[in-house]
Amino acid sequence: MISVEHHRAKVTALLDRPVTQDRPLADCAGLVLAADVPAGVALPPFDNSAMDGYAVRSVDVVEAGERHPVQLPVAADIPAGRTDVPALLPGTAHRIMTGAPLPSGADAVVPVERTDGGTEKVRISAPADPGAHVRRTGEDIGPGAVALAAGTVLGPAQLGLAAAIGRDRLPVRVPPRVLVVSTGTELVLPPEPLRHGQIYESNSVMLVAALRGLGCRVDVVRCVADDVPAFRAAVEPRLAGVDLVVTSGGVSAGAYEVVKDALTGAGVEFAKVGMQPGGPQGRGRWHGVPVVALPGNPVAVLVSFEVFLRPALRTALGHPDPDRARVPARLTEDLTSPAGKRQFRRGHYTPPRPGDADARVGLVGPRGGPGSHLLAAFTQANCLIVLPEDTTEAPAGTVVDVLLLG
Ligand SMILES: Nc1nc2c(c(=O)[nH]1)N[C@H]1C(S)=C(S)[C@@H](COP(=O)(O)OP(=O)(O)OC[C@H]3O[C@@H](n4cnc5c(N)ncnc54)[C@H](O)[C@@H]3O)O[C@H]1N2
Ligand code: MOO
């Protein structure tokens, strides 16, 4: 039996060939930036008004007040987008809109609410300090500064900044193209009615959703029979276009272990990992393509994804924090776990509240038993409870680690 860490390191090494690509911004959300991006322009690129109002010289409105407004001729109108802005002469005002360039000679903006809104001449009833309501060139980011550093996860704000500095593409770590293959002669797809002994296929649906959630492009081959020639015929022709194959089923100790039988000796190693669920696992390369072979039980598939594939893929994608958040929590029920195996139980975590006796530790209760077929219970879970290899009993009240599923 091999350890969770050993298998995880092997799976991570299998995927650690980052590919970078320049992509349109619209296709970068959630991905990781592969290189520093310098600001091509300053932000703001020019001094501009933060308010709809009047650009003035602050010295011209020093005396302005509600009872004694200062009247100035309005010499120009500057909507946002005007590129030929005339200079402001002493003793005059320019009507100006938010985002419009501040005319040279002006050093402040009086909001329209502090004026009578005139267009020929304007009565100004409040003074303005130098710099009032002016957004200075480079105040947000200076030209040439690193706007986004390599390793940044590109969310809406980061993509917005890239657009604002004039980028339409960014260099990103490219998620792999994955082929998901579910195996099992018992598997059928709706609308076919179930005959006794058959079940509806669900593993590939989970894997496709989980992989797409990481940005992977995913193809799928569902319900491959437990027959080695059938498996080869279904998968081999599709290897050329993919960076990773993820299979489910056919890896344990039975008489018809199609994935194990097809890939043993062909570059993929199979082993029992000291964990529950997700004991039987395989990984390696087949015709040079990385293969991760997961067991068939649905809960084992999802737990294996969480423990091995998700962190390995996030590492390959350059995420600074490939792992789920791990927090302590107090068990609300007694749990048991097999000796020598790390158990990942599906749980529901409630964070601590300020008034709680122990405000640092939340509560966690199991959802369903340890059986790796209990998928309905998984849908009620928001975390995995981790019981270490040397734990066989964890009574209610024990503080355990939980992985938050987000
Ligand atoms: N003698 C032993 N038997 C088993 C062992 C063992 O160590 N010795 N390990 C058990 C564990 S743990 C698991 S997990 C399973 C893994 O077996 P396989 O990977 O060979 O998976 P299958 O036998 O093909 O399927 C297991 C289970 O899951 C259902 N299944 C499979 N694929 C799907 C799918 N795509 N959608 C929905 N359900 C699926 C399948 O019908 C079986 O019920 O082996 C144990 N046995
Ligand atoms: O992967 Mo199996 O759960 O350990 O049923």
UniProtKB/TrEMBL annotation:
EC number of this enzyme: 2.10.1.1
Catalytic activity: adenylyl-molybdopterin + molybdate = Mo-molybdopterin + AMP + H(+)
Gene Ontology terms for molecular function: metal ion binding; molybdopterin molybdotransferase activity
Coiled coil: none
Listed pathway(s): Cofactor biosynthesis; molybdopterin biosynthesis
Domain MoaB/Mog: 179-315
Name this protein carries in UniProt: Molybdopterin molybdenumtransferase
Stretch list, region Disordered: 335-365
The keyword Kinase is annotated on this UniProt entry: no
Keywords: Magnesium, Metal-binding, Molybdenum, Molybdenum cofactor biosynthesis, Transferase
Signal peptide: none
Name of a matching Pfam family: MoCF_biosynth
GO BP terms, alphabetized: Mo-molybdopterin cofactor biosynthetic process
NCBIfam families recorded: Glp_gephyrin (NF045515), molyb_syn (TIGR00177)
Family: Belongs to the MoeA family.
Cofactor(s) listed in the protein's UniProt record: Mg(2+)
Cellular compartments per GO CC: cytosol
Highest taxon listed in the record's lineage: Bacteria
Described function: Catalyzes the insertion of molybdate into adenylated molybdopterin with the concomitant release of AMP.
